[in-house]
Amino acid sequence: MSELTVESRDAGEVVLLYPKGFINAHTVRLFEGALQNAISLQRFKIVVNCSSLVYIASAGLGAMMGAIEEIRSNGGDLRLASLNETVQNIFDILGFNHLYRTYASEAEAIASFGPAPGAASGA
Amino acid sequence: MSNAPSRPRGRTKPTLLVSLPSETAYLGLVREMTKRMAELAGFSEPVAEKLALAVDEAATNVIEHAYKGAADREVDMRFEDRGPDFRVELVDTGQMVDPRAVPHVDIDKFVTERRTGGLGMHLMEKIMDSVTFRRSARRNVCALVKHKEGEGTSRG
């Protein structure tokens, strides 16, 4: 069984990433690849849904740090949703909560980017 | 009556010695072993998870820096429940790495300077009570210690 899978889904302008399993120095390239793939497609509004992310070591946090400047300089952001206690703890230890916006649910994280341009409400 | 060498006071249990290949594929095992050993030493699950992260980071440092990614070396690990302390030692025969050369983490500068190094060391120091490095007989020894008192232990 693989230690990490990362699925991707579109929600309007927002790209949703679903890391499932463990992000450490062994698996981080897969996560990094998913971030870079979104960037290469000019998709800069990214939500990482962490509900199935069991664990993240500094390699995974480094992957986010490595991508964030390009994402933000293109008007986007990388936001996180549904962190479990372990992952939240790691964020707290590093003070990452000052660097990344986190949300209790995926819906809130998506909504935080505002309505997509041209999207009619209620349509 | 015992001929065993004197040990620190408290519940000292036999040590667990493990020798692992220097491959990142084994980091998951390092994490699980550390978590289980920390729980056996009496730490609660959330604390055991953090200790596992610190040891994962230490093992990652050995593989990436001391061994420079070479997968054909060994990382010797020693887990010890020393009664008042939980101690994990990692021993490698790779290059000497000066931990003081690792840049100090300034979270605010990470974004502006695109720095991604030093996070592992920062985590280790935040989580453990003590992280020490020494060079002995051409081996690098990294020792991580966590005191049990007041740290989410569930000992009766």
Mean pLDDT of chain B, as a whole number?
Answer: 86
Characterize the largest beta sheet of chain B: strand count, sense, and whether it forms a barrel: 5 strands, antiparallel
Shape of chain A: globular
N→C terminal distance of chain B? 26 Å
End-to-end distance of chain A: 42 Å
Strand content of chain B: 15-25%
Unreliable segments of 5+ consecutive residues of chain A: none
Look at the helices and sheets of chain A and give the structural class. Answer: alpha/beta
Quick one: biggest sheet of chain A? Answer: 6 strands, mixed
Describe the structure.
The complex is a heterodimer of chains A (123) and B (156). With 123 residues, chain A is α/β, with parallel strands linked by helices. Chain A is built from four helices and six strands. The N and C termini of chain A lie far apart (42 Å). In chain A, a hairpin with a 2-residue loop joins strand 1 and strand 2. In chain A, helix 1 packs parallel to helix 2. Chain B has 156 residues and is α+β, with helices and mostly antiparallel strands. Chain B is built from four helices and five strands; from the N terminus they run E-H-H-E-E-H-H-E-E. Chain B has a five-stranded antiparallel sheet. In chain B, strand 4 and strand 5 form a beta hairpin. In chain B, helix 1 packs antiparallel against helix 2 and helix 2 packs antiparallel against helix 4. The radius of gyration of chain B is 16 Å and the shape is globular. Chain B starts with 15 loop residues before the first strand and ends in a 9-residue tail after the last strand. Chains A and B meet through helix 2 and helix 3 of A and helix 1, helix 2, helix 3 and helix 4 of B.
